Amino acid sequence: EGNTDTFQATFFEALKHKSIQNYDKAIALFLECRQLAPTNSAIHHELARVYFLDQHYLQAQEHAI
Prior knowledge:
mainly alpha
């Protein structure tokens, strides 16, 4: 359960940073989430969106696929 709580806190912190356009911090936090839950498809979706917003189109495409 502690892992789930850590994942949720990190995921929502990443969403917060994405919303205030702090993309580098959001990417770092989403990558941390991926370490905690590697099979969660929501992480790849959010990473694709943040990479796209940060104009890193190749990384966005990798996570979108």
